[in-house]
Amino acid sequence: MTIIEEGWVREVRHVSRERNRCADFLANLVNSNQLGTSVFWEPPAGLAWLVEQDIDGPPIVRS
Question: Residue 7: phi, psi to the nearest 5?
Fold first, then answer.
């Protein structure tokens, strides 16, 4: 059975880079990595700080 047949509700929406800094960080990391597929057993350096800021920090307003 596919997702469509199961009646799942799906929503696609744009989220700016400023509002999703963790995804932006990972995208930039992948683009700079010439080794191919990467598996992380722990968050890459710099990502944990962004997650903490996302949880504890003030909301980010795009100007």
Answer: 75, 25
Residue 1 pLDDT greater than 60, yes or no: no
In angstroms, rounded to a whole number, what is the distance separating the alpha carbons of residues 2 and 56? 38
**Domain ranges within the chain, ordered by starting residue:** 17-56
Report the Cα–Cα distance between both ends of the chain, in Å, rounded: 44
DSSP helix/strand/coil, 54: helix
Length of the chain: 63
Q: What is the pLDDT of residues 6-53, one digit of tens each?
A: 777 778 888 777 778 888 888 888 887 766 777 888 888 889 888 888
Cα 17 to Cα 19: distance, rounded to the nearest angstrom: 5
Q: Is 19 exposed, middle or buried (0-12, 13-18, 19+ CB in 10 A)?
A: middle
